[in-house]
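Researcher: Good morning. I'm working through a list of sequences from a screen, and I'd like to move beyond sequence-only analysis. For each chain I'm collecting a predicted structure so we can compare shapes side by side. This is the next one on the list. No need for commentary yet; just the structure.
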Amino acid sequence: MPAPPLPALLAGLAHRATTPAAARQLHAQLLLRGLPLPARAAVALIASSPSPRDARAVFDSAVPAASGNVYLWTAAIAAYARHAVAAEAVVLLFRRMLLHGARPNAFTATPVIKSCSAQQAAEEGLQVHGFLRKAGLGCSAHVCAALIEMYGNLGRVGDARRVFDEMTERNVVLGNTMVACYVRAGDVAAAQEALDGMAERDPISWNTLMSGYLQHGEARVARGLFDGMPERNVNSWNMMITACSMEGLWADAVQVFNQMRIARFQPDAATLAVLMSACAQLGSLSVARQVHGLLKKGCVEMNCHVQNSLTDMYAKCGSISEAHLLFVETQTKDKVSYNVIIGALAHHGRGKDALDLFNEMVEEGLQPDPVTFLGVLSACAHAGLVNDGKRYFESMRKAYAVEKSSDHYACMVDLYGRAGLIEEAHCLVQTMPMRPHAGVWGALLNACQKHCHIDVGKIAAEELIAIEPRNPGNYVLLANTLAQGQQWYSVETVRQSMRGKGVDKTAGCSWIEVDSIVHEFFMGDLSHPNVDGIYSILEHLYLQLT
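Model: Good morning. Structure tokens for this chain:
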């Protein structure tokens, strides 16, 4: 039965009801008069619905008068999928559509497939694919891309490939989806082969493959792909910065960021997150200030989490004053805010300030966690506050219900060791309720080297080398400890042991920032462009000192 004609005013409103606001106004007027909602207005309302219940209410009011309208059904199915309604319900609505005689198109099928994909609904997904093949709807590029993605999410890469191979005309979207399917399955070689077979590629093609190599730790290959890209976008630059960071090439990461700015690409949240980590590792204060400036310009919302990262970055770049100022300016501080600044103050030797902030944290009603106490104990160690450290260590479980870990014991060993209390530190290690890890023995060995305690140093070194036999730093620490005791024969024995095991000493490395450029130096390095001038000045300084 056709819907009754609308009054002239409502008819004009219905004609203009293609936006959510106009559609809601029309819907209110029609509800007052008990009239059905026109399909076009219903589609606009359903598309902007804030919940599946609202979408369904509008849909039910419009279906009696427009049960065969494919756009109305498509809007409702898409709304269900968008709001992550159970795949069974999405498929049920799709079946109702068929029963009402509405013929689906590619835009109807796509959200149904995506719903099955997102919710790992394998049975429903296979049923929908079977119907689409029979109905001749499986040839659309949109539908095929959704099917490939669905099979990839379900772990059925072979089925995804069969869908891909059945397509006689392939575009870049299909190719990208197939590459992403292989990357998700962890088969980077197949992803590379799929990319090589694409007639057309875009930045998404390259970025997807780069992400696959990065996931497998093959940062060098990812960097090679980046260098060969004919066209790049922001994500390409982000992954290149990530690749440099993964290899520990922090200076290169900053250099890539500078090249990104020169190429007039605007950094996004992902860029700045990776860059903050690189700056913290490299200690580049000028780049840290650039990142902060970009954040102030509105690249990313300056919330508590971002400010915590900035605080950590400034502290690791050596500017504890700017880190502390950021902490003070943070309006809503959480547990992480206090953990970051307590740890930062501890490492900068401001132990008493760190402890004051710990007390402030407790007064604010925030519950300390294991990370908090690592900062507190480290603060006591750096400030030589042995009694305070012991008190906080004992209060962890009693006052704050925080269990002690090996890391907390390592901090206590470091606390005793810095104070020269080697026997107390060794006794603590021997009475630990869990097996000491490398950090515990390393702290003890460091203390023994500093205070020339040979006997305990040998014990610590033996345990440490048993845990980390390939770590050259352990052998060097032991050799230095023995050298301080003038046990030269034992020093040579340690060096022979290193050579016998094929353990090479890691080359020393240092960075220095001059005029916003970070210069990296390795021991015996002659690759710097100003190497002649550098060594000339060093020789001049040496002659002056001698």
